[in-house]
Amino acid sequence: MYMIFKRLIIGGEIVEEEVVSMEVAEQKQAATAAMLKATDLAFVKCECCGLTEECTEEYIKRVRDRNSGRWICGLCAEAVKDELLRSEKRIGNEEALNQHMSFCKKFRSLSPPENPEFACCCF
C-alpha cells in the first residue's frame, strides 16, 4: 500500500500536512473530477422559442428527461404549465408541450409589419 504525503509550506512554516493512502487520494480525485464535470457549462437552444441559454450539463439532462428528450427554457416550461391548466379537456404534458411548440412555430413564422407605427395602435 502506498502513502501520499502532502505538505503546504508558507513562508518556511508548515501550515498543513496530510498523509493519505493511495485509495483515499484516488477517491478524492474522482470526486473532484465529478464535481467539475457537473459544473461544465454548455449552450443549449430552446426547441420552442429559440432562446439560447448557458446551463450545466446536469441541468440540461434533467430538463430533457422531463420533456421527452426536448430542451425548453424556463419561460416555455411555464407556458406549457398554463396550457395544461387552461385546456378544456384533460391533456397530458406531452400534448401541452406540442401545443406550445406549435404556437411558437406559428409566431416565429410571422413577418413584422411593414410600417410598425400604424400596426401598433388605432387612432
From TrEMBL:
This is DUF1677 family protein. It comes from the Eukaryota. It comes from Sesamum angolense. PANTHER family: OS01G0745000 PROTEIN (PTHR33108), OS06G0199402 PROTEIN (PTHR33108:SF76).
